[in-house]
Amino acid sequence: xxxxIFKNILVxxxxxxxxxxxxxxxxxxxxxxxxxxxxPKACRFYSSxxxxxxxxxxxxxxxxxxxxxxxxxxxxxxxxxxISPQFNIDSDITWGSPKTRTVNLxxxxxxxxxxADITVTATGGAGTGLGAGNDKTATIGGLITxxxxxxxxxxxxxxxxxxxxxxxx
Amino acid sequence: MKRLRTSPxxxxxxxxxxxxAAALGCxxxxxxxxxxxxxxxxxxxxxxxxLDPVTAPNxxxxxxxxxxxxxQAQFAIAQWTWSSANxxxxxxxxxxxxxxxxPGIAYSVGIAVAGSSANRTLTLTLQIAGPNYTNASAGSxxxxxxxxxxx
Lengths: 169, 151
Fold this sequence. Notes:
The complex is a heterodimer of chains A (169) and B (151).
Chain A lengths: L2 H24 L3 E10 L3 E3 L23 E11 L5 E5 L9 E9 L5 E9 L14 E9 L1 H4 L7 E2 L4 E5 L2
Antiparallel strand pairs in A: 2-3, 3-7, 4-9, 5-6, 5-8, 6-7
Chain B lengths: L7 H25 L1 E4 L5 E5 L11 E12 L8 E6 L7 E5 L8 E10 L4 E10 L10 E12 L1
Antiparallel strand pairs in B: 1-3, 3-7, 4-8, 5-6, 5-8, 6-7
């Protein structure tokens, strides 16, 4: 093989290597990155309820009435978009929506118990997000039956009830 | 002492080499004078911390990629650009949620290259502002960012 032919082959080979290397290099001028995130289900209260008075009228229970004594209050909540809340009362073993639990009101003087049914209902329905302007209303209902208040001694009965909220799993 | 190549055969050989190099190698030479994502840095993944919609803080996540410019001086003019599969070139966009959250979750993209040699580190920093996800549906979201460098 003459020197001239050898040189041309060498130049061609080097150029080919360079071309291949260049192609491989060009493939690395881009990169792809997968991005991911997770938004969890969540619900929170955004207000405290006003005191709820269970009564017939004027803040009193009529002991001879045959109608239930009732009371209502409200508080606001927000949940993750499209997620509904559920509630708990005084750390009960079960959650519900609505959630009802019977609690004992305690007489201020007699220290006697007066059973009352407390119910929390997500009146506002599913959440629309936890940002400002997405408040929903939860209604708290209180009920004392004639059978219970009819047997109660005259007194002022009360109890502080703790209500918790969470997203329905 | 180096002998000058003045013979006709030598001139033909040199000219042939240059022509062949121009046809094949010179373009390749231009490509070499550029930047690249190094092996092992052409793909990656970033997972944001859990996006708590209750407190909704600004959330940041980052990844580092290894890059190289050859020659090194190319770093001065290299353009590192990106595009989002669900968004565009100005704002990244995470898509997903159950049900699908139509607005998506927008995030910002920052690119910074640090180092002093031909081999350097590119840091890709992503941030989601709290208001961008506080009203999002629950569930998983994703996007694919494509990074490119020129030259």
